[in-house]
Amino acid sequence: MIDTTRSSRISGFHKKSPAERLGIVSDFAGLDAAAAARLSDTGNLDLSLADRLVENVIGSMNIPLGIATNMRVDGEDVLIPMATEESSVVAAVCNAARQCYDAGGFTTSMSGTLMIAQIQAVDVADPHAARLRILGRREEIKAICDGCDPVLLSFGGGFRDVEVRVLDSQSGPMLVTHLIVDTRDAMGANAVNSMAETLAPHISAWTGGRVYLRILSNLADRRLARAHAVWPLDQIGGEAVRDGIVSAYHFAAADPYRAATHNKGIMNGVSAVVLATGNDTRAVEAGAHAFAARSGQYGSLTRFEVTADGQLSGSIELPMAVGLIGGATKAHPTAQACLKILAVTSAERLARIIAAVGLAQNFSALKALATTGIQKGHMALHAQNIAMMAGAVGDEIDRVAAALVERGTVRQDIAQAVLQDLRGGAAGA
Ligand code: NAD
């Protein structure tokens, strides 16, 4: 039934303290003291810091942080912190990395650390001539952009180029200016957005048009991270496994329905490291999926093929706009600890490692799918989740999960029956 006595129109909510807000929310939702206490326990993130990072804070949501082992990237061993709520993601990376470790692990590269900002101008009478007018002012544009961020300049970043496109849109031609900016160790959203906003009135004056949007593009295709690995046949279980993985890739390359799931698996690994390091998961995800559709058909971010001597070769290429400073990367103490675990000193190294993690993740998923199926590997942790959903607590979780795995059927109704037996047995004992 709809409760009409409750109102979400809460005046001045943003001006209250987190504790006051939590009190209001508890009353609204009928939270008991235990639930409210759990929300306000912010773990390794100071409540005052959380309150500065986002708006209307009442607490924090903790996500497990796991470490993927066995990763060797460009000749250097590295431990990978991964923040994820999904079971099997961390194990998948460990397994994939183990199977290519002796063959050298992952080799990576990066196309650059360039971000793109877009400025949209409409109602331009002569868009093609206006395009040339903008391009002719390259040096002026560079000076305006670089003047916005002297700190970025001092770290070797700044304006690199300007491009102008005439877009045919539903509301007529649009003139879209792209600022290409090297943002070095920053993800760079704020950096390039400021440049676009500062330049916008000039674009308006030079083109005679009206400027609307001034913001970065998350399709960061000037910031592509690449990773490659060879999995020897004896490590992966032979030719049939290799061919199954290649066939799975071909499936994804040919079918967007499959490619969506294929790339989701890649992002399981990618987003977990992006989140652990305080970076923007949505920015990286948007960039990855837009890049996957760049040909007009959504496809795979990875490629699998067979080397001349019959080994499995895997590669990945995707935009990777991550930073070591800016956003929550510097502010969140856990992100700082994760960056220390990764031992990265540049955003480029971080991006390259993340690409390697995405490839590792995909290898494991395809191998499982092409052989035993995905559920077998998921079974143990999934069984624990189902046991908890059925109400198991403490030791009961492992005991119920073990019983489910033994039966080979992980279902909540069975978990409930097992739990009932267990409790009945204990009560009777
Ligand atoms: P930021 O503005 O906090 O920090 C970047 C600035 O730090 C640079 O402009 C520079 O002045 C300075 N800096 C210091 N040392 C540097 C170094 N070694 N290399 C480069 N710059 C250095 O952060 P940002 O990276 O511009 O923006 C990231 C944030 O923007 C993220 O929180 C993201 O969520 C958010 N954001 C994203 C989008 C989007 O993706 N569409 C849009 C808006 C905001």
Bound compounds, each kind once, are:
nicotinamide-adenine-dinucleotide
Whole-number average pLDDT?
A: 95
Question: What general form does the structure show?
Answer: globular
**Beta fraction:** 15-25%
Oligomer: single chain
| Integer-rounded radius of gyration | 26 Å
Strand order of the largest sheet: 3-8-10-9
Provide the CATH architecture of the largest domain: Alpha-Beta Complex
Counting structural domains, the number is 4
The N- and C-terminal alpha carbons lie at a distance of: 44 Å
In terms of per-residue confidence, which ranges show pLDDT below 50 for 5 or more consecutive residues? Answer: none
- The helix/strand order is HHHEEHEEHHHEEHEEHHHHEEHHHHHH
Structure, described:
With 429 residues, this protein is α+β, with helices and mostly antiparallel strands. It has four domains: 37 residues, no CATH class; 196 residues, Alpha-Beta Complex (3-hydroxy-3-methylglutaryl-coenzyme A Reductase, Chain A, domain 2); 103 residues, Hydroxymethylglutaryl-CoA reductase, class I/II, NAD/NADP-binding domain (Alpha-Beta Plaits, 2-Layer Sandwich); 53 residues, Helicase, Ruva Protein, domain 3 (Orthogonal Bundle), CATH 1.10.8. The chain is built from 18 helices and ten strands. The strands form three sheets. Strands 3-8-10-9 form a four-stranded antiparallel β-sheet. Helix 1 runs antiparallel to helix 2. The longest helix has 24 residues. InterPro entries: HMG_CoA_Rdtase, HMG_CoA_Rdtase_bac-typ, HMG_CoA_Rdtase_cat_sf, HMG_CoA_Rdtase_CS, HMG_CoA_Rdtase_NAD(P)-bd_sf, HMG_CoA_Rdtase_sub-bd_dom_sf. It holds the Pfam family HMG-CoA_red. Belongs to the HMG-CoA reductase family.
